[in-house]
Automatic annotation (TrEMBL):
Name by which UniProt lists this protein: Helix-turn-helix domain-containing protein
GO MF annotation, one: DNA-binding transcription factor activity
Pfam families: DJ-1_PfpI (PF01965), HTH_18 (PF12833)
CDD domains: GATase1_AraC_ArgR_like
Superkingdom of origin organism: Bacteria
Organism the protein comes from: Castellaniella ginsengisoli
Keywords associated with the record: DNA-binding, Transcription, Transcription regulation
InterPro entries per UniProt: AraC_XylS_family_regulators, Class_I_gatase-like, DJ-1/PfpI, Homeodomain-like_sf, HTH_AraC
Domain HTH araC/xylS-type: 225-323
Gene3D superfamilies: 3.40.50.880, Homeodomain-like
Length: 329
């Protein structure tokens, strides 16, 4: 790893229950790039951890780290590979301190899947935009209320912001790996490796949009899927129709027409349904007052939420909460 002709050095940290596919998206590309040369390849990489105990992936496959954490400045990129679900426990203080050391040293920090959590916990995402999976947004904002909602992106699968790169996972990981490697390696080498993996030359066919929320057809127009993701993210402070349409590069009339055509509803009605779903979740899973829930979910007051809630559920929020207490987790 001390060869001067190595173009890029990467240190991978595999978090408990990490996604094997996300790790493989990087490892396969790096391995093929090395295989294209007769000597030591252009990429140096290893798996590091605070112990050499094998790390178990979400699929059950275990990977043994090749070295201890050591000095993070020996890497150009530190890549944390997380899992598909919100982490059950926080990463340890040793990893957090190591990440802060890497950040102070100007290293690029990459968080795949739920690895955005330990990056946020270590405080190395301050002032950066970051990508969070849409299904983890509520949990993430609950854990990190100091991170401004406008810095959290859920409608796109990856965010590059200076020396911080975050990705929600899936096929977009390959696209992230390709974009990083193209910074350091000849384009012809990267294209050759992609062809070996049966990918198009531009990387993974991940598109620019995260999977849509439940109830939104996957074949809906991109504008509809993006609008639904934005509404889900900002349930408590959904932008007005004109602002939402402008964010998508459409007029309000065009957005209304798309929702009518593909969802048989309006953006306003869809947003109201999102608020009510969030309110029901909070009634069941939190001990917040109904007034506080109404405020969090963007209703004018508890009475406003109560009227909308009764129209859907046939009972007042308080009665619904008592009826569902046995299901609280």
């Amino acid at each position: 790893m001390n060869r001067d002709d190595i173009s890029v050095r990467m240190g991978f940290v595999l978090l408990p229950q990490f996604t094997m596919g996300a790790f493989a998206a990087f490892a396969d590309l790096l391995g093929l790039l090395d295989a294209q040369t007769d000597t030591v390849g252009p990429c140096a990489w290893e798996v590091v951890a605070d112990t050499l105990i094998p790390v178990r992936s979400a699929s059950g496959i275990q990977v043994v780290p090749t070295d201890l954490l050591g000095d993070p400045l020996r890497f150009d990129y530190v890549v944390l590979v997380g899992g598909p679900l919100a982490p059950a426990a926080e990463a340890g203080p040793a990893l957090a301190a190591w990440l802060r050391q890497a950040a102070r040293g100007g290293r690029h920090l990459v968080g795949l899947c739920n690895a955005v959590y330990p990056l946020a916990r270590a405080g190395v995402l301050a002032g950066h935009r970051l990508c969070v999976g849409g299904d983890q947004y509520r949990d993430f904002t609950d854990r990190f209320p100091a991170i401004a909602p406008e810095r959290i992106v859920t409608e796109r699968p990856a965010v590059f912001d200076r020396r911080r790169i975050t990705c929600a996972g899936g096929a977009a990981v390959t696209d992230v790996a390709v974009r990083i490697l193209r910074r350091h390696l000849p384009e012809a080498d990267v294209r050759r490796a992609l062809r070996c993996l049966q990918f198009e030359a531009d990387g993974a066919p991940s598109g620019q949009i995260q999977p849509p929320p439940p109830g939104i057809p996957a074949d809906s127009p991109p504008a509809v899927r993006r609008a639904a993701l934005v509404i889900e993210q900002y349930a408590g402070q959904i932008p007005g129709l004109d602002d939402l349409a402008g964010r998508l590069g459409l007029s309000a009339r065009q957005l209304q027409r798309l929702f009518r055509q593909h969802l048989d509803t309006t953006p306003q009605a869809y947003a109201r349904g999102v608020r009510l779903r969030q309110a029901a979740w909070m009634l069941r899973h939190t001990d917040k007052t109904i007034a506080a829930i109404a405020s969090d979910c963007g209703f004018a007051d508890a009475a406003h939420m109560g009227r909308a809630f009764r129209a859907i559920h046939g009972m007042a929020p308080g009665a619904w909460r008592r009826a569902n207490e046995k299901n609280t987790v």
